[in-house]
Amino acid sequence: MARRRIHDSLWPSLLLAVLLFAALLPLGATTDWQVVENRAFDLFSTTDPPQPAAHGAMVVAIDEPSFAEIGRQWPWP
Predict the structure, then answer these.
(1) Which of 56, 57, 65, 35 is closest to 74 using CA atoms?
(2) Could you say which DSSP state residue 74 is in?
(3) Structural domain boundaries of the chain?
(4) Quick check: 46 and 52 in contact, CB under 8 A?
């Protein structure tokens, strides 16, 4: 009985989500929306810029002992 109530309460939310998606989908094709999207990207890029990469080099060992450690063989099947 409780399971049915949960399912019944999800239908209005699902319907609302589908209707909202259908209503907002055409906005993606307009050039006005592209301008808004570009400005939002610029704003987020300047307020929280990407972190610089860590200094130094990383060596990745790809040899027989490494494959044996993870239980694989080369070439991968």
Answers:
(1) 65
(2) S
(3) 2-50
(4) no
